[in-house]
């Protein structure tokens, strides 16, 4: 009986579900930020980073980027217009997927997770001249909370160097 109990215990332990967690971290620090159009501070701007078969998409609501030096912190929640989306694709994705009027049919999106909350930190510095003002916006993403389709929360993710974009 003791041996039977041990066998059932081993079967039970080995059959536990690990939740099929696919995302343990967001590894986008060494990937360049991209956009399809020139940055316009008066409009919402879509910025994205592609890392092989995954993408991190940041939509900044209008007037978050400013033409004033300083640091702005945006506490992104479900009630703000700024969003962070993580997508996992069936194959390597290119910027054409985001920039073409009609996205290519392949690769397909395997999973899409919209962040529930995050802190977006934007540090703006003036880099142009008085005659031709230009501003660089350095973007960091901290305290990102994702909720997977399996209702699993992944918290405290960050992308320390989301990227730098320029406006003029």
Description:
It is a single chain. The protein is mainly β and 168 residues long. It is 10% helix and 43% strand. The chain has two helices and eight strands. The chain has helices spanning 2-14, 96-99, and strands at residues 45-51, 54-60, 70-76, 83-89, 109-114, 117-126, 135-147, 153-167. A four-stranded antiparallel β-sheet has the order 1-2-4-5, with no helix packed on it. Strands 3-6-7-8 form a four-stranded antiparallel β-sheet, with no helix packed on it. The longest helix is centred in the first third of the chain and has 13 residues, at 2-14. It is globular. 18% of the residues are buried. Mean pLDDT is 85; it is low at 7-21.
Instruction: State the end-to-end distance.
Output: 78 Å
Q: Biggest β-sheet, characterized?
A: 4 strands, antiparallel
Structural class: mainly beta
Give the count of helical stretches: 2
Calculate the mean pLDDT score and round it: 85
The dominant shape is: globular
Spatial strand sequence of the major β-sheet = 1-2-4-5
Q: What proportion of the residues is helical, as a percent range?
A: 10-25%
Number of E-type strands: 8
One letter per element, helices H and strands E, the order comes to HEEEEHEEEE
Which percent band covers the strand fraction?
35-45%
Q: Spans with pLDDT under 50 lasting ≥5 residues?
A: 7-21
Radius of gyration: 21 Å
């Amino acid at each position: 009986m003791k041996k039977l109990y041990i066998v059932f215990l081993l079967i039970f332990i080995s059959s536990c579900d690990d939740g099929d967690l696919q995302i343990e971290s967001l590894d986008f620090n060494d990937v360049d930020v991209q956009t399809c159009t020139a940055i316009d501070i008066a409009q919402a701007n879509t910025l994205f980073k592609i890392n092989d078969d995954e993408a991190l998409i940041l939509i900044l609501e209008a007037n978050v980027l400013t033409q004033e030096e300083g640091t702005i912190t945006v506490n992104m929640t479900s009630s703000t217009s700024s969003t962070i989306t993580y997508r996992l694709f069936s194959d390597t994705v290119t910027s054409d997927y985001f920039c073409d009027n009609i996205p290519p049919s392949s690769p397909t999106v395997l999973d899409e997770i919209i962040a529930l909350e995050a802190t977006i930190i934007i540090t703006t510095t003036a880099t142009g001249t008085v005659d031709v003002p230009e501003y660089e916006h350095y973007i960091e993403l901290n305290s990102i909370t994702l909720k997977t389709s399996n209702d699993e929360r992944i918290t405290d993710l960050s992308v320390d160097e989301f990227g730098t974009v320029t406006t003029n």
